[in-house]
Amino acid sequence: IHLKGACFLSKQRGDSQEKIIMKLRLFNILEAVKILLLALIMTANLFAQKGGRRPLTIDDAINMFSVGSTWHLAPDGKPETVLITPDGSKVFFSKTGVDWKTNQWQTKYYMISSRGGKAVEFLKKEGGVMREDGITTFQFSPQGSHLSFLRDIDGERQVFIMPVDGGEARQLTEHINNIYMYKWSQDEKKIFFIANEARSKEEQKKFELGENYFCVDEYRRYLLQAKWRNLWMFNCVSLQETKLTNKELLIDELDISPDGKRVAFIARPNNLRNYPHLAELYMFHVPDKHLVRLTD
Question: Full-prediction pTM beyond 0.85?
Answer without folding.
Answer: no
